Amino acid sequence: MGSQPASGASSPAAASQSLTLAAMMFAVSMTFIDQTIVSIAAPSIIRELGLSSAGMQWVVNAYLLSLAAFFALGGRLADILGHKRMMLIGTLTFVVSSALCGAAPSGSGAETWLIVFRAVQGLGAALMFPAALAVVVEVFPLERRGRALALFFGVAGGLTAIGPILGGWLTSWTWRAIFWVNVPVAIVAVVLTLLAGIRNTPRPEPIDWRGAALVAIGMGLSVLGLQQASTWGWDSAATWLCIGFGLVFLILFVLAEQRAVDPLIKMRVFRDRAFAVDNAVLFFAMMAFVPVFFFASVYAQVALGYNANQAGLYLLVFFAGFAPGSQLGGRMLDKRGAKAPMLLGTALGAVGFAFWAAKITDLSLGAQWWCIVLGGAGIGLLLTPASTDAVNRAIGASYGEVTGITQTIRNYSASLSLAVLGTVLLNTTTSKITSTLTQQGLPSGVAHSTAENITQNLTGHSGGTAPSGTSSGTLDAIRLDFAEGNRYVLYGMAGALAVAFLCARLHPGTRVTRDTQSAERPAGAHLDPGGAEGPRGA
Fold first, then answer.
1. Tell me: the pLDDT tens digits for 468-514?
2. How far apart are CA 321 and CA 311, in angstroms?
3. Burial of 492 (0-12, 13-18, 19+ CB in 10 A)
4. Which fold is adopted by the domain 266-512?
5. Tens of pLDDT along 250-262?
6. Domain 1-206 belongs to what architecture?
């Protein structure tokens, strides 16, 4: 991976850059698809393997828990062992565990088998993703990096939406195929990586295992508490003990890192105002971006009466705005810096989600599509500039480390949003269905317990259906009640994007350039192959 020109699409170097970008997109595509694909296949898995509903929830959560716990370590290992090497290790870990998930035996051990190897999948993704993104950052020169990462994040975002479609289609054959499909994708990623001729560039340094343990325990416990809040209840001691102890461990992690000689995360990077703002924008924006796929998928199946494949197509409307928004955001970043696209993206996103909330009770895609496209365009506009600007400001070219930071923040934000907004949806929908049933003559106590059962059934792993025997008129009323519950969810997402807009206003507006990087490059900082050093910018 030698020095590469910034332009000249027909040159061997440019061809190598294209191969590298394609290889990394194939690798991370598996991690994005797996965030949504398993939930679609859940009813089939439960039926064939005899899993409990709680066990199935753990199959879904084990992946996300492991991902959250090990992102920071994965980013640091990528810098120490080399981005290419860690990307290949992560890919192999991910695909082998994925194949083993697909080979889960029937019987009493099936639940444990799936949970364990889903957790290993999450570990593989945590090792792979920071390394893959760091490879892209390393290979592309600063002036072309925005557009490259716009394509990277644009395709990745689209694959999150494709997960339900692919899951529905594969599950019609066998649920095991949702795991086996990762095998050919991984093979393509590895082959393209080898063909691209990427050089591994390790930076041998001690690993802060104490910090790794503290952040893994802290992230794992707090995310576990958030994930289980809907099952255990917000009034449960277990919920708050997990969240509370998780936060204590995260505080201990921050204190330990400030004193560590070779910290897992260099906390001084947050002294860079632009870097801190980038991550604040990502934190609040991800409260809308990741959870929207879950909530919109369930809404489409319950309120609109779509099947799983049709629900996936409903989500693609969001991608119709996200994809061009992502490309425009990347170009704006390269020309004007991160502040302008972040301001425009957060504003458009907040407006789009607010209009979507207002239209959601129309129960018609025809009335909603332009709101969904607008919301998607806003997210697309801000995602690449915020992520890329943060990585460009890495200290000492620690691209993997900074990517680990941003991805940890994004994943934690999504977990928090899913927990809080999921509770909002459950409580609001239950209240409205209770009112509907009371108006139809049921006693208030019976109406409330019935409403709770209906809501749990609609939002659980049962395929999004109301109980059998429900009359047509009552079913229509319940669908409208569920849509009204989702209205509050979308307003919450619009509010999060409005806060992200206020954060974006605090960005200093400076751009990271070769000159600013050279001026502030600390001793020993590495040059990237495009000629741009890697410390934080002005």
1. 555 667 788 888 999 999 999 999 999 999 999 999 999 998 887 65
2. 17
3. buried
4. Growth Hormone; Chain: A; (1.20.1250)
5. 999 999 988 888 8
6. Up-down Bundle (1.20)
